[in-house]
Amino acid sequence: MAxxxxxxxxxxFIDQDESVQVVADTIGSSGEVPERYVRHEIEANIVIIDNAxxxxxxxxxxxxxxxxxxxxxEIAKLGSACEEWxxxxxxxxxxxxxxxxxxxxDITEFFRLPLQEKKAVAIPPNDLQGFGHHFFFPKEQxxxxxxxxxxVTRPVEERSMDFWPTKPSTFRDSLDKYSLEIANxxxxxxxxxxxxxxVDEEALLGVFKGQTQSVRINHYPHCCQxxxxxxxxxHTDGVGLTLLxxxxxxxxxxxxxxxxxxxxxxxxxxxxxxxxxxLRVSCFRSHQILTNGKYKSxxxxxxxxxDKGRITLAAFHKxxxxxxxxxxxxxxxxxxxxARYKTVDVxxxxxxxxxxxxxxxxxxxxxxLGV
Length: 371
Ligand SMILES: O=C(O)CCC(=O)C(=O)O
Ligand SMILES: [Fe+2]
Prior knowledge:
The protein is 32% helix and 19% strand. The protein is α+β, with helices and mostly antiparallel strands and 371 residues long. Helix 6 (97-112) packs across helix 8 (171-197). The site of fe (ii) ion has 4 residues, from loops.
């Protein structure tokens, strides 16, 4: 049964009845990766990875953001992280440590279940929610080396509980609690971003009223030919703000800055926050350029570890598809300059985003005005 949210998009999603974990187990430690997964572009591109980690990635401290003694300084740091990187580590975020431990354990246990048990929540044809492997147009597109569990988590009435695993038994409860805590973190960040942008808090928060939160829980099995596959092709996330949780301590996220790829070192206990496309592109009167290009949306991808599987949980916060807030960029920002991005509504944006060939920034670039 297709969920109401994806019904509205009216685009076809093809699911692939294949588990990457099974492919990984089949090829073992010496087999060949099936052609469908082999990424020739990895070799073709000049990829410089900063393994030395000497590039300093922004780290933002939530406890300072909300402490009147330090907030001004920390909000300025948050602003430059969003402008320069569109990406930062968020520490002291306030999400309960016990809950984090529990959800990590539940997710790990879910992916360890035998395939048949995971398939109890398999993605049906032309839907997005559930366990499986997303496969969008075009058909010749290479497959990512990942299994995933995708669920709409908020608003609560939009949940399709049929896709929420019942094994392990604590899974549903942990995800329910986590989804609330992380929604609160995202709201706090939006408020602080509004202060940094010098716009009315309500103008920014209004766009997210009744926001949709969905989670994409990614499992990237290890691969004996790790340099031939990609866990997640280069992309920018959809609309809103992504908060990424490292479920286990295996590195794999890479971000592109100034044309170079950088490996992101895990920071224990931190969440990775990505201010994503809407912040750069817009929110009209349903989806207009909110920050008029001031904040970046970071292009990123996930690479595979040859020895260890990696698990992450990405929580996406976006305006509801029914968002009809008014046409045009945030007025206060437009008074400071011309609109730099086209106006598109949430449904059109989401459709374009999902159906565009995954070429990193291509869909985002197509919305740019005057270039
Ligand atoms: O797993 C990662 O490191 C990245 C995941 C991601 O980019 C996504 O789910 O959108
Ligand atoms: Fe992403």
